[in-house]
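Homework help board

Subject: predicted structure for assignment chain

Our instructor gave us this sequence and asked us to write out the predicted structure in token form, then describe one feature. I got the tokens but I'm not sure how to describe them. Can anyone check?
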Amino acid sequence: MSDGRLPVQRRWIRWVIGAVVTLLVLATGWVVIRGFSAASELQGVATSTSQLRTSIAEQNLARAELVAPRIAQHAASARDLTSDPIWRGFEFVPWVGQNFTAMREIAEIADSIATDAVTPLLGIAGDVDLAGLGVSGASIDYSPLAAAEEPLAAASATLAAAEIRAQQIDAGAALTPFADAVRDMRDVVTKTATAVGAIHGASVVLPTMLGGDTPRNYLVVMQDNAELRSSGGIVRSLTLLHAEGGKITIVQQASTRDFPGLESPLPLSESTIALFGDRPGVAVQDITSIPDFTEAGPILALRWQQRFGQSIDGVIAIDAVVAKYLTDATGEVSFGPFTADADSILPILLSEMYTSVTDPNQSNDVFVQAANAVLVASLSSTQPQKIIGALSASADEDRIRVWSAHPEEQRLLAASSLGGALPVDGERGANVGVLFNDATGGKMDFHTAAAISTAVGECRGERATQVQVTWTNDAPQDAAETLPESVTGGGGEIDPGDVRTLVAVYGPEGATLRSTDRDGDEAEDAQTTTLGTREIVQLDVLLAPGESTTITVSFAGTAERVTRVQHTPMIEEPETTTGDLDCS
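My token output:
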């Protein structure tokens, strides 16, 4: 007869199971709490790093010295929270283990950056006196940058290695908030690595580029984003700068009217001719259609030399949005009949000017005057830190491209984002690109918008990369009546208010084009060619006011991830997202 008690063996098994379950619950609670805490600490790293970059750029070293310890503290805490034996044990749990691995690795990267890059950078920040950047009659003292070259090189190398490691972490496999923390930190690492790399490059090339050894001549080209070209917009203004011993002066200005079209086009690459014909080799305003600035820069320099005779040591191309950032730093500027500040200069330059100044030649002259006014104000600014900040913000959005006629300088520039060269895929991941070139013959791109989405995965047993572009004409329905011919293009083959655009999409290096769809149907009129080592497809898109179209391009290849979408700089930055792969 039973006394109601379980046999000893069964009680033992039940006790063990209960203990294991209890331990698992406690361990799970432990790592979940620590995971949320680590995510919070990483957010603290991201916030403090942004504050540090701003403080150093503004030469606010007192603030920087307060911020830097916070970065180290947040990073160390994140690493401690994700490195105990229980956390490491969860890395081996099927399905969820990769979340814990991703968090641990990104925390280790953050701690490494704080220790090996932030501290050395703060140590040299006090030696780099940006307030010495006096221009307009004063010389730039570039000796502090030269003295900082060695520690900058070390910090840049640390950050470059950290960026490669961070990009190899599969954030897509992680769960929220782990995925958000990983993505945010990857973005911080990339931005910081880019910024420090650019400063290091400047410390190497700036002394000679500013005429420290021999005088230099630079051509500054301003582009009009209301008529898009691959690198920003149509060329509207050209300015010759002279640099000698650190002193910069404006020598001469010209407009595109000073450059008649050539009877025989200059030599162009096969890809440029395939995409745009020979126009970039004939018309100076179309040279910025060329996607690769290592090709466009020398052609711009040659056109100036042919027209005016001066030799050119380098070309700097900026777009109209840079004028907005610079005006925010300098205050109001006056040109033609206008006085503009940071809020009004873009609407004036890219839209209102054509209503007030209807003669195309006069409006072109006003644009040149605006470029001159912005340059003069920037070169005479008494707050160079703000000018540096404006240029930094512009460079972050790929709105500044620089080419040098001196091979060693060009080698460094081409390897940086400032060089405007075609991207190179590698350990950081794959790059894709979207180019917009206006074919309306007007200034209608003030009324356009773009959204870009990418997806990477596997379709039918092979790696696939998709790029989806949505292009919209936001012009008013009555554009034909309310907008002048200088904006709409004057009709002809295109109805006033319509926008005609060449939209080109290129995939990862070595990837093969598989399909091009437009609004769900195969795009039979798609034009395909190669751009360096990449396949590129281009569509001629015509949209009436209010219309929108979506182009989806699929590539087959070995890309594991897309780390960057290179796109034409526009007035408003396109919304760029990561989507789901559509294998249909």
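Reply (TA_rk): Your tokens look well-formed. For the description, you could write something like this. The first strand starts at residue 216 and ends at 224. That's the kind of observation they're looking for.
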